[in-house]
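Let us practice reading a record.
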Amino acid sequence: MIELRDATDDDGEALLLVLGAAFAEYPPCLMERGEYPELARPRESFARQGGALWVVEDEHGVVGSCGVTPSREPDLCELKKLYLLPRARRRGVASQLVALAERFAESGGRARVHLFSDARFVDAHRRYERLGYRRLDDVRALGDVSQSIELHFEKRLG
């Protein structure tokens, strides 16, 4: 059984494990703990930014997450940390999480949601497109240990 709940600050270690497992599916993508200081206190970090973070659990523990934060642009929110372990995929969980983030954005008067996704995460890109996100032309290089290049996606709400 899958359960969705608000993240707590105690979820940080489990979330790092989920990210590490997701990254391991796309070599040479590496999970360097120091690149995710927000996961030391995830609930507090997202709340401080005016956002929210949700965790997905099954009977064995945390299997995923999704967060959203307001952007500097007044009508925009950013979808963040959408990761699911393989055992939680293909059950509609990602769609539920994205819908939750979009409702959060709309409740704050935001008309758009955008996200950045590692260019290697092709399956995720297909999911975003099925959910109505369109790929924009810009990309960004993170300069992280994995040398990640991220693609930019956006959806207009309403």
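A brief commentary: The longest strand covers residues 61-70.
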